[in-house]
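Input chain follows. Return structure tokens only.
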Amino acid sequence: METNRTDFAGWMQARQRDIEAVLEAILPDPGRSPARLHEAMRYAVLGGGKRVRPLLAYAAGEAARAERARVDRVAAAVELVHAYSLVHDDLPCMDDDVLRRGRPTCHVAYDEATALLAGDALQSLAFDVLAGQALCVNPAEQVEMIALLACAIGSRGMAGGQAIDLASTGQELSLPELENMHIHKTGELIRASVVLGARCGDCDGGSAAALDRFARCAGLAFQVVDDVLDAESDSETLGKTAGKDARQNKATYVSIMGAAQARRFAEDLRVDALQALLPFGAEAARLRELIDFIVLRRH
């Protein structure tokens, strides 16, 4: 994959346009039956979001000199999974939220049953995308990539982290307990985005280990900053309901550490992530810029 030497904002906007076009082509035609389900799937995915996970996949693909078409599919798969998780997280039986990406959540725009099915179908589509075309030379390695995503979002990953989150509401958590929850709930899919993007290209054992370390730092930093923004920003800025964690009496990095210390922790993770990229040259420039974006963002 070629490295575009334009400024980071230009690169990010170009990749966001790329993934929007890929997702637009992959998602089912809303004119086909069942039309309402297909409309809800497209509503949940298109036209919003920072696309951090696809951006990480693209940046890791650049670091590993991967073919763009292969990374397109990985980027689409991780974003489809992310969108499905948001649809389900917003349901009344979970976080019961009404605002996502600056507009009504999927179950508000449609209904709970349709939103539930839309999330299910988006998850299924993600694996269809990963399995549908060659992502690497070795078919056995592609099977490993599919298994990696499955593990990242299952009971030992994202779903397990959400289960811990629900069980912990109203309880005091230690910092290690909170970190364990978010490594699973948020970090594993971010890690998968980086690792899968890199595995579309040329990534030896040493490089893979370095990228894995980077991804673990990035995933945890993303959640720390999310907690700070939830406490300090308003709903209009965030595009989702602000202050929700405090109202639901959930343990966060802010409630345990305070906002200032949480910010310092995110900065420490940023430094660690950058250290992990030291073995790489210019090919990892976008990963370096992305960790800055993750930690320094304001929404």
